[in-house]
Amino acid sequence: MSVTTAWGIVGLGNIAGKFASDLALVPGTRLRAVASRDVHKARSFSEEFGAEQAYGSYAALFADPEVEVVYIASPHSFHREHTLAALQAGKHVLCEKPMGINSREVKQVLDLAGKKGLFLMEALWSRFNPSIREVYQLVRTGDLGPLSYLRADFAFPALDRDPLGRLLNPALAGGSLLDIGIYPVFLAYLLLGVPGDFKVLAHFHGSGVEKQIALLFDYPEAIAVLYSGFSSRSEMKAEISCRDGSIFLSPRWHRAESYTVEREGEMSHIELPLKGSGYTYEIEEVQSCLKEGKVQSDLWSWEDSRALHDLLDKIRQSAGIAFPGES
Ligand SMILES: NC(=O)c1ccc[n+]([C@@H]2O[C@H](COP(=O)([O-])OP(=O)(O)OC[C@H]3O[C@@H](n4cnc5c(N)ncnc54)[C@H](OP(=O)(O)O)[C@@H]3O)[C@@H](O)[C@H]2O)c1
User: Fold this and answer.
1) The domain 5-126+279-296 is classified under which CATH number: 3.30.2010.10, 1.10.3720.10, 3.40.50.720, 3.30.470.20?
2) Cα–Cα distance for residue pair 123/46, rounded to 1 Å
3) Which of 132, 231, 248, 265 is at a distance of 20 to 30 A from 184, taking alpha carbons?
4) Closest C-alpha to ligand 1, atom 37
Protein backbone atom coordinates (compact mmCIF):
# COMPACT_ATOMS: atom_id res chain seq x y z
CA MET A 1 0.00 0.00 0.00
CA SER A 2 1.09 3.57 -0.65
CA VAL A 3 1.22 6.07 2.22
CA THR A 4 -2.12 7.51 1.13
CA THR A 5 -4.79 4.99 0.19
CA ALA A 6 -6.38 5.67 -3.21
CA TRP A 7 -10.14 5.09 -3.10
CA GLY A 8 -12.63 4.65 -5.92
CA ILE A 9 -16.41 4.91 -5.65
CA VAL A 10 -18.87 3.25 -8.04
CA GLY A 11 -22.62 4.01 -8.15
CA LEU A 12 -23.00 7.74 -7.50
CA GLY A 13 -26.38 7.83 -5.76
CA ASN A 14 -27.59 8.98 -2.36
CA ILE A 15 -25.10 7.19 -0.11
CA ALA A 16 -22.06 7.75 -2.34
CA GLY A 17 -22.13 11.52 -1.66
CA LYS A 18 -22.31 11.09 2.11
CA PHE A 19 -19.50 8.54 1.96
CA ALA A 20 -17.31 10.84 -0.18
CA SER A 21 -17.79 13.71 2.32
CA ASP A 22 -16.75 11.44 5.18
CA LEU A 23 -13.80 9.99 3.24
CA ALA A 24 -12.35 13.51 3.12
CA LEU A 25 -12.37 13.56 6.94
CA VAL A 26 -10.22 10.45 7.30
CA PRO A 27 -6.46 11.10 7.22
CA GLY A 28 -4.44 8.93 4.85
CA THR A 29 -7.13 8.68 2.16
CA ARG A 30 -7.51 10.24 -1.25
CA LEU A 31 -10.46 10.02 -3.65
CA ARG A 32 -8.65 8.80 -6.75
CA ALA A 33 -11.69 8.14 -8.95
CA VAL A 34 -15.47 7.95 -9.15
CA ALA A 35 -17.58 6.09 -11.71
CA SER A 36 -21.14 6.34 -12.89
CA ARG A 37 -23.00 4.84 -15.82
CA ASP A 38 -23.37 8.49 -16.89
CA VAL A 39 -20.09 10.34 -17.41
CA HIS A 40 -21.71 13.78 -16.85
CA LYS A 41 -22.91 12.64 -13.44
CA ALA A 42 -19.42 11.30 -12.68
CA ARG A 43 -17.85 14.67 -13.65
CA SER A 44 -20.20 16.72 -11.53
CA PHE A 45 -19.76 14.35 -8.55
CA SER A 46 -16.02 14.50 -9.03
CA GLU A 47 -16.07 18.32 -9.02
CA GLU A 48 -18.20 18.40 -5.88
CA PHE A 49 -16.07 15.93 -3.92
CA GLY A 50 -12.64 16.54 -5.42
CA ALA A 51 -12.01 13.21 -7.17
CA GLU A 52 -8.94 13.06 -9.42
CA GLN A 53 -10.70 11.07 -12.18
CA ALA A 54 -14.31 10.74 -13.34
CA TYR A 55 -15.28 7.67 -15.35
CA GLY A 56 -18.42 6.93 -17.38
CA SER A 57 -18.25 3.20 -16.69
CA TYR A 58 -17.50 1.09 -13.64
CA ALA A 59 -15.12 -1.06 -15.74
CA ALA A 60 -12.93 2.00 -16.43
CA LEU A 61 -12.56 2.65 -12.70
CA PHE A 62 -11.74 -1.01 -12.00
CA ALA A 63 -9.05 -0.75 -14.71
CA ASP A 64 -7.44 2.35 -13.14
CA PRO A 65 -4.09 1.05 -11.83
CA GLU A 66 -3.94 3.77 -9.16
CA VAL A 67 -7.20 2.78 -7.45
CA GLU A 68 -6.43 0.54 -4.46
CA VAL A 69 -9.80 0.10 -2.77
CA VAL A 70 -13.29 0.41 -4.24
CA TYR A 71 -16.45 1.39 -2.37
CA ILE A 72 -19.45 -0.26 -4.06
CA ALA A 73 -22.61 1.85 -3.66
CA SER A 74 -24.90 0.33 -6.28
CA PRO A 75 -28.32 -1.28 -5.60
CA HIS A 76 -28.41 -4.64 -3.79
CA SER A 77 -28.90 -6.76 -6.89
CA PHE A 78 -25.58 -5.52 -8.38
CA HIS A 79 -23.33 -5.93 -5.33
CA ARG A 80 -22.18 -9.41 -6.32
CA GLU A 81 -21.39 -8.44 -9.94
CA HIS A 82 -19.60 -5.21 -9.03
CA THR A 83 -17.66 -6.74 -6.14
CA LEU A 84 -16.52 -9.68 -8.28
CA ALA A 85 -15.42 -7.30 -11.05
CA ALA A 86 -13.45 -5.11 -8.62
CA LEU A 87 -11.76 -8.14 -7.02
CA GLN A 88 -10.95 -9.62 -10.44
CA ALA A 89 -9.21 -6.33 -11.24
CA GLY A 90 -7.10 -6.74 -8.08
CA LYS A 91 -8.88 -4.10 -5.95
CA HIS A 92 -9.70 -4.30 -2.25
CA VAL A 93 -13.43 -3.79 -1.69
CA LEU A 94 -15.78 -2.18 0.80
CA CYS A 95 -19.26 -3.23 -0.38
CA GLU A 96 -22.48 -1.62 0.83
CA LYS A 97 -24.89 -3.78 2.79
CA PRO A 98 -26.20 -6.31 1.95
CA MET A 99 -23.03 -7.87 0.52
CA GLY A 100 -25.25 -9.96 -1.78
CA ILE A 101 -28.95 -10.62 -2.08
CA ASN A 102 -28.52 -14.10 -0.58
CA SER A 103 -25.90 -16.24 1.13
CA ARG A 104 -24.93 -17.92 -2.14
CA GLU A 105 -23.87 -14.54 -3.57
CA VAL A 106 -22.07 -13.65 -0.33
CA LYS A 107 -20.16 -16.93 -0.49
CA GLN A 108 -19.11 -16.22 -4.10
CA VAL A 109 -17.61 -12.82 -3.29
CA LEU A 110 -15.92 -14.07 -0.12
CA ASP A 111 -14.47 -17.05 -2.00
CA LEU A 112 -12.97 -14.78 -4.65
CA ALA A 113 -11.53 -12.36 -2.06
CA GLY A 114 -9.97 -15.37 -0.30
CA LYS A 115 -8.56 -16.74 -3.55
CA LYS A 116 -7.12 -13.37 -4.56
CA GLY A 117 -5.89 -12.50 -1.06
CA LEU A 118 -7.71 -9.16 -1.19
CA PHE A 119 -9.48 -7.22 1.55
CA LEU A 120 -13.29 -7.38 1.49
CA MET A 121 -15.79 -6.05 4.01
CA GLU A 122 -19.55 -5.53 4.07
CA ALA A 123 -20.20 -1.88 4.92
CA LEU A 124 -22.31 -2.54 8.02
CA TRP A 125 -21.33 0.86 9.37
CA SER A 126 -23.29 0.48 12.64
CA ARG A 127 -20.73 -2.12 13.78
CA PHE A 128 -18.14 0.68 13.96
CA ASN A 129 -20.41 3.27 15.57
CA PRO A 130 -18.75 4.40 18.85
CA SER A 131 -21.94 4.06 20.95
CA ILE A 132 -22.67 0.58 19.61
CA ARG A 133 -19.08 -0.47 20.20
CA GLU A 134 -19.28 0.64 23.85
CA VAL A 135 -22.67 -1.03 24.35
CA TYR A 136 -21.28 -4.25 22.86
CA GLN A 137 -18.40 -4.19 25.36
CA LEU A 138 -20.74 -3.41 28.25
CA VAL A 139 -23.00 -6.36 27.40
CA ARG A 140 -19.96 -8.63 27.02
CA THR A 141 -18.63 -7.75 30.50
CA GLY A 142 -21.89 -9.11 31.96
CA ASP A 143 -21.88 -6.15 34.36
CA LEU A 144 -25.65 -5.70 34.02
CA GLY A 145 -26.36 -9.44 34.26
CA PRO A 146 -27.50 -11.59 31.34
CA LEU A 147 -29.24 -9.94 28.39
CA SER A 148 -32.79 -11.27 28.23
CA TYR A 149 -34.79 -8.89 26.04
CA LEU A 150 -33.72 -6.85 23.03
CA ARG A 151 -35.97 -4.56 21.02
CA ALA A 152 -34.87 -2.76 17.86
CA ASP A 153 -36.66 -1.32 14.86
CA PHE A 154 -36.11 0.73 11.73
CA ALA A 155 -38.95 2.26 9.74
CA PHE A 156 -39.74 5.24 7.54
CA PRO A 157 -42.58 5.95 5.09
CA ALA A 158 -41.49 5.01 1.56
CA LEU A 159 -44.51 3.51 -0.17
CA ASP A 160 -44.95 6.68 -2.25
CA ARG A 161 -41.42 6.33 -3.72
CA ASP A 162 -40.65 5.55 -7.37
CA PRO A 163 -41.93 1.99 -7.99
CA LEU A 164 -38.85 1.39 -10.18
CA GLY A 165 -36.45 2.69 -7.50
CA ARG A 166 -34.41 0.32 -5.41
CA LEU A 167 -36.72 0.29 -2.34
CA LEU A 168 -39.91 -0.92 -4.04
CA ASN A 169 -38.57 -2.74 -7.09
CA PRO A 170 -38.27 -6.54 -6.72
CA ALA A 171 -35.76 -6.61 -9.61
CA LEU A 172 -33.41 -4.44 -7.47
CA ALA A 173 -33.98 -6.74 -4.44
CA GLY A 174 -36.21 -4.14 -2.80
CA GLY A 175 -38.25 -4.46 0.39
CA SER A 176 -37.53 -3.37 3.93
CA LEU A 177 -35.69 -6.47 5.20
CA LEU A 178 -32.46 -6.20 3.17
CA ASP A 179 -32.50 -2.40 3.15
CA ILE A 180 -33.21 -1.47 6.78
CA GLY A 181 -34.37 -4.67 8.54
CA ILE A 182 -30.78 -5.82 8.21
CA TYR A 183 -29.88 -3.38 11.04
CA PRO A 184 -32.14 -4.81 13.79
CA VAL A 185 -31.17 -8.33 12.68
CA PHE A 186 -27.51 -7.27 12.87
CA LEU A 187 -27.93 -5.87 16.42
CA ALA A 188 -29.54 -9.09 17.66
CA TYR A 189 -26.79 -11.12 15.97
CA LEU A 190 -24.06 -8.90 17.44
CA LEU A 191 -25.34 -9.02 21.02
CA LEU A 192 -26.99 -12.45 21.17
CA GLY A 193 -25.71 -14.45 18.19
CA VAL A 194 -27.70 -16.62 15.80
CA PRO A 195 -31.14 -17.46 17.28
CA GLY A 196 -32.08 -21.11 17.75
CA ASP A 197 -35.46 -20.39 16.20
CA PHE A 198 -37.56 -17.42 15.07
CA LYS A 199 -41.10 -16.35 14.17
CA VAL A 200 -41.82 -13.98 11.30
CA LEU A 201 -44.77 -11.95 10.06
CA ALA A 202 -44.50 -10.02 6.78
CA HIS A 203 -46.83 -7.80 4.73
CA PHE A 204 -46.32 -7.17 1.02
CA HIS A 205 -46.64 -4.12 -1.25
CA GLY A 206 -48.45 -4.20 -4.61
CA SER A 207 -45.07 -4.31 -6.40
CA GLY A 208 -44.37 -7.65 -4.74
CA VAL A 209 -41.72 -6.44 -2.27
CA GLU A 210 -42.13 -6.98 1.45
CA LYS A 211 -43.22 -3.67 3.01
CA GLN A 212 -43.15 -4.48 6.71
CA ILE A 213 -41.75 -7.35 8.70
CA ALA A 214 -41.81 -8.32 12.39
CA LEU A 215 -39.43 -10.87 13.86
CA LEU A 216 -39.20 -12.69 17.16
CA PHE A 217 -35.80 -14.30 17.74
CA ASP A 218 -35.73 -17.16 20.21
CA TYR A 219 -32.57 -17.70 22.30
CA PRO A 220 -32.18 -20.13 25.22
CA GLU A 221 -32.34 -17.28 27.78
CA ALA A 222 -33.48 -14.30 25.70
CA ILE A 223 -36.00 -12.98 23.20
CA ALA A 224 -35.36 -10.29 20.56
CA VAL A 225 -38.28 -8.31 19.11
CA LEU A 226 -37.37 -6.74 15.77
CA TYR A 227 -39.23 -4.72 13.14
CA SER A 228 -38.65 -2.90 9.88
CA GLY A 229 -41.07 -1.25 7.50
CA PHE A 230 -41.75 1.29 4.78
CA SER A 231 -45.29 2.19 5.88
CA SER A 232 -44.64 4.45 8.91
CA ARG A 233 -41.97 6.15 10.98
CA SER A 234 -40.76 4.40 14.13
CA GLU A 235 -38.98 5.76 17.18
CA MET A 236 -35.76 3.85 16.48
CA LYS A 237 -34.63 3.68 20.08
CA ALA A 238 -33.08 0.28 20.77
CA GLU A 239 -33.61 -1.28 24.19
CA ILE A 240 -31.17 -3.83 25.57
CA SER A 241 -32.63 -5.17 28.74
CA CYS A 242 -30.47 -7.19 31.16
CA ARG A 243 -31.26 -8.70 34.58
CA ASP A 244 -29.74 -5.83 36.58
CA GLY A 245 -30.31 -2.90 34.24
CA SER A 246 -31.04 -1.69 30.74
CA ILE A 247 -29.23 0.13 27.98
CA PHE A 248 -30.99 2.45 25.54
CA LEU A 249 -29.29 3.36 22.26
CA SER A 250 -30.61 6.81 21.36
CA PRO A 251 -32.60 7.39 18.16
CA ARG A 252 -31.76 6.71 15.45
CA TRP A 253 -29.99 3.86 17.15
CA HIS A 254 -28.20 2.51 14.04
CA ARG A 255 -26.22 5.81 13.93
CA ALA A 256 -26.45 6.58 17.65
CA GLU A 257 -24.62 9.58 19.09
CA SER A 258 -25.35 8.60 22.69
CA TYR A 259 -26.71 5.89 24.94
CA THR A 260 -28.22 5.66 28.42
CA VAL A 261 -27.62 3.03 31.07
CA GLU A 262 -30.29 2.46 33.73
CA ARG A 263 -29.22 0.54 36.82
CA GLU A 264 -31.43 0.30 39.93
CA GLY A 265 -33.31 3.44 38.89
CA GLU A 266 -30.09 5.46 38.35
CA MET A 267 -29.60 6.79 34.82
CA SER A 268 -26.24 7.60 33.25
CA HIS A 269 -26.15 9.19 29.83
CA ILE A 270 -23.05 8.89 27.61
CA GLU A 271 -22.65 11.28 24.65
CA LEU A 272 -20.49 10.14 21.73
CA PRO A 273 -21.03 12.62 18.85
CA LEU A 274 -20.30 11.26 15.38
CA LYS A 275 -17.39 12.40 13.27
CA GLY A 276 -18.95 13.48 9.93
CA SER A 277 -22.05 11.47 9.14
CA GLY A 278 -20.60 8.43 10.88
CA TYR A 279 -19.19 6.60 7.84
CA THR A 280 -15.73 7.74 8.96
CA TYR A 281 -15.50 4.79 11.38
CA GLU A 282 -15.93 2.06 8.76
CA ILE A 283 -13.45 3.92 6.54
CA GLU A 284 -10.95 4.03 9.43
CA GLU A 285 -11.45 0.29 9.92
CA VAL A 286 -10.66 -0.39 6.24
CA GLN A 287 -7.59 1.87 6.43
CA SER A 288 -6.35 0.13 9.54
CA CYS A 289 -6.90 -3.39 8.11
CA LEU A 290 -5.09 -2.47 4.88
CA LYS A 291 -2.19 -1.02 6.84
CA GLU A 292 -1.90 -4.26 8.79
CA GLY A 293 -2.17 -6.38 5.62
CA LYS A 294 -5.44 -7.99 6.74
CA VAL A 295 -7.97 -9.33 4.24
CA GLN A 296 -10.87 -9.06 6.68
CA SER A 297 -11.90 -7.04 9.70
CA ASP A 298 -12.01 -8.59 13.18
CA LEU A 299 -15.00 -6.38 14.00
CA TRP A 300 -17.15 -7.39 11.01
CA SER A 301 -15.52 -10.53 9.64
CA TRP A 302 -16.31 -12.76 6.67
CA GLU A 303 -17.84 -15.24 9.11
CA ASP A 304 -20.11 -12.46 10.45
CA SER A 305 -21.36 -11.68 6.92
CA ARG A 306 -21.85 -15.40 6.23
CA ALA A 307 -23.82 -15.96 9.44
CA LEU A 308 -25.94 -12.82 8.96
CA HIS A 309 -26.85 -13.75 5.39
CA ASP A 310 -27.60 -17.38 6.26
CA LEU A 311 -30.05 -16.02 8.82
CA LEU A 312 -31.55 -13.50 6.36
CA ASP A 313 -32.04 -16.33 3.83
CA LYS A 314 -33.96 -18.35 6.42
CA ILE A 315 -36.10 -15.34 7.34
CA ARG A 316 -36.86 -14.64 3.66
CA GLN A 317 -37.75 -18.28 3.04
CA SER A 318 -40.09 -18.35 6.03
CA ALA A 319 -41.70 -15.01 5.06
CA GLY A 320 -42.01 -15.90 1.36
CA ILE A 321 -39.67 -13.09 0.18
CA ALA A 322 -38.18 -13.94 -3.24
CA PHE A 323 -36.46 -11.89 -5.93
CA PRO A 324 -36.75 -12.38 -9.70
CA GLY A 325 -34.13 -14.70 -11.15
CA GLU A 326 -33.24 -16.33 -7.83
CA SER A 327 -33.38 -20.11 -7.92
N1 LIG B 1 -24.97 2.69 5.12
C2 LIG B 1 -26.01 3.48 4.95
O3 LIG B 1 -26.34 4.32 5.79
C4 LIG B 1 -26.79 3.39 3.71
C5 LIG B 1 -27.76 4.35 3.44
C6 LIG B 1 -28.43 4.27 2.22
C7 LIG B 1 -28.15 3.24 1.34
N8 LIG B 1 -27.22 2.30 1.66
C9 LIG B 1 -26.90 1.21 0.74
O10 LIG B 1 -26.17 1.80 -0.34
C11 LIG B 1 -26.54 1.20 -1.58
C12 LIG B 1 -27.03 2.29 -2.52
O13 LIG B 1 -28.11 2.96 -1.93
P14 LIG B 1 -28.54 4.45 -2.37
O15 LIG B 1 -29.60 4.87 -1.43
O16 LIG B 1 -27.35 5.29 -2.53
O17 LIG B 1 -29.19 4.12 -3.79
P18 LIG B 1 -29.41 5.11 -5.01
O19 LIG B 1 -29.51 6.52 -4.55
O20 LIG B 1 -30.51 4.52 -5.81
O21 LIG B 1 -28.05 4.98 -5.82
C22 LIG B 1 -27.61 3.76 -6.33
C23 LIG B 1 -26.68 4.03 -7.49
O24 LIG B 1 -26.34 2.77 -8.06
C25 LIG B 1 -26.03 2.93 -9.41
N26 LIG B 1 -26.66 1.90 -10.25
C27 LIG B 1 -26.01 0.96 -10.97
N28 LIG B 1 -26.85 0.18 -11.64
C29 LIG B 1 -28.09 0.64 -11.37
C30 LIG B 1 -29.38 0.27 -11.80
N31 LIG B 1 -29.58 -0.73 -12.68
N32 LIG B 1 -30.43 0.95 -11.33
C33 LIG B 1 -30.25 1.95 -10.46
N34 LIG B 1 -29.04 2.37 -10.01
C35 LIG B 1 -27.97 1.72 -10.48
C36 LIG B 1 -26.49 4.33 -9.81
O37 LIG B 1 -25.33 5.12 -9.93
P38 LIG B 1 -24.81 5.66 -11.33
O39 LIG B 1 -26.05 6.23 -12.02
O40 LIG B 1 -23.85 6.70 -10.92
O41 LIG B 1 -24.21 4.53 -12.10
C42 LIG B 1 -27.30 4.81 -8.63
O43 LIG B 1 -27.21 6.19 -8.44
C44 LIG B 1 -27.58 0.14 -1.22
O45 LIG B 1 -26.92 -1.08 -1.06
C46 LIG B 1 -28.12 0.57 0.13
O47 LIG B 1 -28.58 -0.52 0.93
C48 LIG B 1 -26.53 2.37 2.81
Assistant:
1) 3.40.50.720
2) 22
3) 265
4) 11
